[in-house]
Amino acid sequence: MPEPILRIRKLTKKYGDNVIFHDLDLDVNEGDTIVIIGPSGTGKSTLLRCINLLTRSDSGQIWFGDKEITAKGTNEDRVRQQIGMVFQNFLLFNHLSALENVKLGLIKVKHLSKAAAEAKAMEELERVGLADWAGHYPGQLSGGQQQRVAIARALAMDPRIMLFDEPTSALDPELIGEVLEVMRSLALDGMTMMVVTHEMGFAREVADRIVFMEKGSIVEEGSPIEMFNRPKFERTREFLWKITELYGAKDHDET
Amino acid sequence: MPVIRQELKGENLDFLTLLRYIASGTAYTFGVTVIALPSGLLIGTLLAFLYVYGGKGIGKVMNVYSTVMRGIPPLVLLFLLYFVVSKGINLSGFWAGSISLGIVSSAYQMEIIRGALLSVGNDQLMAARAVGLSRRQAVINIVLPQALRLAIPPWSNEAAIIIKDSSLVYALGVPEILRRAQLIGASTHQPLLAYLSAALIYFVLVTVTNRLLNLLEKKLTVPSNH
Q1: Chain B residues touching A95 at Cβ < 8 A
Q2: What's the pTM value of the predicted model, to 2 decimals?
Q3: ipTM rounded to 2 decimals
């Protein structure tokens, strides 16, 4: 039995009276890819932000490895260094080249020498197929390229888990495939990943588990086969059917 | 106090001599500017950081500072510092003028930097935190370099204002450009020529400064296809 790398217990987040999600329980096993789906405004993105402590949860616990990171006195920077995050709108550092974007954390956080950081950063850019674009600035890259640099930037820190917050939602359809391809190969390499996405083709093919969230709760979770072929709840079937119709079960890079 | 030499009196003073006399006040204009502008930038940047990242209470204090300093004429502050405060510490007109202009400018520059910090936005900060940078590292390495780029055009404006406002120290008898124009205009009975010369010198100083800052802005522009 693989050990869960992430255990979420009774996690609740509110903004004032507005409950984003409540009493969430979720385990993520080492090496697994978890795809979280659900209508917008369901708290999927907020959940990811709570996991790497960019947003504070109101109650409940998150265990990362054998540490409770929601405990008081947790070194947040330390936690985030081990959790990679990829945002919907890329959020590359606009004034830095692709290479510098990837290098920065290695120098400032990991305290690598300039040469070592550069070598490692180039390695990560190669991994996402952008070694030739190292000197380009975010404004000179396509959305797909920017997102791949963002993935390289997160990977460079050697995270134990990667969080993807709708990584392809802001992309033109023809650019989605290249990003999903990188994510797919990451999953195959055994990276632990949590992915919020509407890409059902990716979910079906890559996910070990699909989690369906709605109105701040987990409605149902299971393997792709269980979720697509014999969901327990009518609501799950309905949502999956609708979203598959909208976004397609096929991958965009299959031509 | 500059002494008008005998040969500089009389009605038929040639233009070049007059211009040279007035232009020799540029050293003071320059001096006041290079004291007031950078000190205003330093204080303004510091206050802008407190304003944006210091929480609500500090933000309110900064807002009051900004409102007060931008609400009184620089000349009034100048007189306050020179005739009231400097009684105790014996400040020269030059220093009283430079310091008060620096204080006034710090309020304007605070607003410039604050606006720039806000336009960079929280997303860049969040992305940096997600990589594992501390808040301080994120602000210094990610937000500040982008904010300073955004601040150059409005700052160029402020630089022009300070160069021109440096003429206010003439009221404390500092022999800068305007003071010299006033003196020689009166002694030669050629006020038109004298003040036009002063205007010309200020114009050249401001234009050259703005050109240089434009070049800096171009040089620092991040390459983009969009």
Answers
A1: 145-146, 149, 222
A2: 0.87
A3: 0.90
